[in-house]
Model the fold of this input.
Amino acid sequence: MDIDWGGQGPASMPSGNNCGQLGTDKCAMITGSGNGTSTMGVSGMGTTFIQTVNISDLNISKGGRTNYTIKVEKQDAQDSIYMHITGKNGATDVFSGTDILSASGTNSGFQSYAGGFDFSGSITTVIIEVGGRDINLAIGPMFDDVTVNVLYNVINTIVEQTITSVEMFVAYNIDAPEEVIDIVEDIF
Done:
């Protein structure tokens, strides 16, 4: 992560060896131990990072899916980290999903996570929230390399006609050469 997304609660942006297996560039660290509710309605968080992406220029109107990937380094089993995505059409929520990446009580270390959420209808904005808690206030859960892809449906109608006789073929293909008609007669 190159920049701090902003959000709720205390956080830091370490780099180098402080990011563990996430790499030497900057990563995001959850440092809050609180037990509040996030802007997106997820309970049990001490820190959030939140990013809003305007995708209205894509004109999505027939549903689709958001897929995400994220790398996480969690060294303390008591800590927790989650991924939340909300899709909106203007001010109206279209979908909302939360995945607990590593719950309190789980010793997960370094992991890559992937998931996603289906939606229907139109969306104009995607809000990505990564949050969690740092219980012991030592090294909080860290994350990096967040990707969110929005896959959306484009629906086209294809009309197929089935030709069941030579007469139908000739009727649809009035200007067909005699050789083609001979082949069609052999098939039927």
About this structure: Helices lie at 166-172, 178-187. The chain has two helices and eleven strands. The longest strand covers residues 64-74. Residues 11-152 form a domain with the Jelly Rolls fold (CATH 2.60.120.260).
